[in-house]
Design a protein that fits this description.
- Helix content is 42%, strand content 11%.
- With 394 residues, the protein is an alpha/beta fold.
- The strands form two sheets. A seven-stranded parallel beta sheet has the order 3-2-1-4-6-7-10, with helices on both faces.
- The radius of gyration is 23 Å and the shape is globular.
């Protein structure tokens, strides 16, 4: 087993203040632990709905965060540098209140991390069958797009006035790659990345930095809320050859749940090669989906007949493996004097995006003559005016 790399922070003259939008998620807790150990201050956003009794394992998630505060924040003397605020990114008022609380308590915000996410699982057609599934689509964009937009807009005046700051938005390689069965999740990721790319140019003159961080698909999906729409018979695995996300994720979760009674969520034996495969058996951080996983009772997402929300009950060892690379990347990039505009986490993610870009490049070359075939040449013929094109005088 490879021990995760120690956190490496950029050089900075004084302690910084972080605002994390989803402190109860595994990445939020792990990052908070490292940041507080480093000596920085932190404002932890908590969405009260995370602990909803209507979501499977929602209370487990809330209890894990409560244990972090009780067993680590207090005993380690971090309480003076830690502030917890209610924060539902969909609520503009709560976003403004969280920023105001950070300024009142610590006097500044240096780093904003937008890491709130949920994944709606279902094909485009499955998410168009009823008003309830259409509401899921709206919820996907409210959480993954408008949530980050709201907190970023609330923070911008403070960062602009200070003429410093770093905004980091956690998305995924699904913002590069379409994924069957996660169409609306991918769409929300592409939307927020388009917003961030444009915003980066607008805030650069104020010395405010913007970074999009893209971990592998499973990082955000398996460490945040999943909502599965009812499946349609036309998309069952028996008749549909495409490897849908519902099947892959469902089999993985089924296997985890079947293993849990025997080994417990905290036992590393639950993370066996039959659950997840690795590029390198010595690399704890390379866990990824195995489309060949076969559950003993594959009944969870693959046979959903109603809307199913849950937080995946991951074994502790698997959870730590999944998020290790992402937490390391966040500590190394956040607050950097010259951070990357976009950073892909993990070798597999880099390889996948490279393959996608290679395909795009090859298609451009294949159809370059078609692309240039309608270019308007400057012939001086006014009859060639199209959409306001006016030839210049010879």
């Amino acid at each position: 087993m490879t021990v995760p790399k120690a956190a490496q922070f950029p050089q900075h003259a004084s302690p910084r203040t972080w605002l994390i939008t989803s402190a109860a998620c595994p990445i939020g807790i792990a990052l908070s632990r490292v940041v507080l150990s480093h000596g920085d201050s932190i404002v932890l956003g908590i969405d009260p709905s995370d602990a909803s009794k209507n979501i499977d394992h929602g209370q487990d998630r809330a209890e894990e965060f409560a244990a972090f505060v009780r067993d680590e924040v207090g005993p380690n003397g971090w309480r003076e540098r830690c502030r917890i605020v209610g924060l539902d990114g969909r609520n503009v008022g709560q976003c403004q209140a969280a920023v105001a609380e950070a300024i009142q308590t610590f006097g500044k915000i240096d780093i904003l991390l937008c890491c709130t996410s949920e994944a709606i699982i279902g094909t485009v057609e499955e998410l168009s069958t009823s008003p309830r599934t259409l509401n899921l689509v709206r919820s996907q964009f409210e959480t993954n797009f408008f949530g980050p937009v709201n907190i970023i807009k609330a923070t911008l005046p403070t960062l602009r006035e200070a003429r410093s700051g770093h905004i980091i938005v956690l998305t995924g390689i699904t913002s590069h790659l379409g994924t069957p069965g996660l169409g609306l999740y991918c769409a929300s990721g592409w939307a927020i990345e388009g917003f961030c790319d444009s915003l980066a140019y607008e805030i650069a003159p104020f010395n405010v930095k913007m970074t999009i961080l893209q971990p592998n698909l499973e990082i955000n999906v398996l460490t945040n809320k999943i909502i599965a729409a009812p499946s349609l018979p036309q998309y069952k695995t028996e008749v549909h050859p495409a490897p849908l996300a519902r099947t892959i994720i469902g089999r993985l979760l089924d296997r985890i749940m079947n293993a849990a009674p025997a080994s417990g969520h905290a036992q590393s034996s639950a993370v066996s090669p039959s659950i997840a495969k690795r590029e390198n058996s010595d690399d704890e951080a390379s866990v990824h989906f195995d489309s060949n996983i076969q559950a003993q009772n594959p009944v969870f997402l693959s046979s959903a007949s109603q809307i199913q929300p849950l937080y995946p009950p991951l074994p502790t060892a698997m959870k730590c493996s999944l998020i290790a690379e992402t937490v390391h990347a966040l500590t190394a990039i956040a607050g950097h004097e010259n951070p990357p505009a976009r950073h892909i986490v993990g070798y597999e993610g880099v390889a996948s995006v490279k393959e996608k870009l290679k395909t795009v490049s090859e298609e451009l070359e294949d159809f370059v003559e078609c692309s240039a075939g309608v270019d308007i040449e400057n012939t001086g013929d006014t009859a060639g005016n199209v959409m306001g094109y006016i030839p210049t005088a010879e």
